[in-house]
Amino acid sequence: MNMIFHRKLPIPQDIKAEYSLSEEMVKIKEKRAEEIKAVFTGESDKFILVIGPCSADHRDPVLDYISRLRLVEDKVKDKLIIIPRIYTNKPRTTGEGYKGMLHQPDPETAPDMLKGIIAIRDLHLSALRDYGFTCADEMLYPENHRYLSDLLAYVAVGARSTEDQQHRLVVSGIDEPVGMKNPTGGDLTVMMNSIKAGQSAHTFIYRGWEVESRGNPLTHAILRGSVDFAGKNVSNYHYEDLVALNELYAKTSLKNPSVIVDTNHANSGKQYLEQIRIAKEVIHSRNHNDDIKKLVKGLMIESYIEDGACKAEEHIFGKSITDPCLGWEKTEKLIYDIADKL
Fold it and tell me: Following CA atoms 316, 103, 112, 16 in sequence, which dihedral angle do they give, to the nearest 10 degrees?
């Protein structure tokens, strides 16, 4: 076998026991979970913002950013639920490049998966303990989800993973809302099939166990745009796209029809400043059509302390080392603008 087995990693149960939640943290997590669930079931008309860095790279700037979100949410909590992005796994198209904090808790040192597991759990724990936030993460690796499963408010399955069977089956056993992105090729039937699989019950192998899932009724769509055969970005956040998705949902028996619109990636052509315009257009579409208003539960925005992106070796505090992000000044203004327009 062309692999080297370095060491056996601790199982999630052991990591959770060593880095555990206090009773107060559990209460905050449960309260947040009910508030967020109510948005997806239609019992609450609050709007969700899944917002934060493209990828969590260093602990201190991520927590600095989250501390700023804490002050803002206190002012808009009557209309918005803010779910900070702490994305600890970074999908790479070719497999090359920085793969996230799980792999490299320090982007400039060699990968260390054990240190990574501890680092990402510590970061999510700090967000909950110090700022009262349960956060979002991408489920890049289904087998690693349980290291954070008691901490997360929201789970995203990426465009390259939506069609994967193991991702779909694991989603069916998760309690929190899970967004399934449309694939990079843009075929919405793939995304809708993944939602159906996530909402259904299954029996399958997971982490060496035969498990039975009950289905996750909070599995829903994320529109992130696509790339056509010629490599051109094709957006899918416009009014007509949202109407079309609503019609697709109407042809199914899926529970809690919902979508989160990703304002970056192929929707913006990775032009990060376009996120401001896209966010406002989606809000306008909701205000124009009651069906769209019921369907669109929130936005996904890539934002950090500094505008743009840089190389890891440049050491710019709070500046993305992966995809470019909105800086804090623009982010704060955008959040208030969204709240005003709802």
Answer: 110
